Amino acid sequence: MSVTYRSPGAILTRAGALACAACAAWLLAGCASVDEGPQGPAPMFFYPERAQTPAQQDRDRYECYRWSLRQAAQGSASRPLPAQRVRDAMGACMAARGYRVG
Question: Which pLDDT value is given to residue 42?
Answer without folding.
Answer: 82
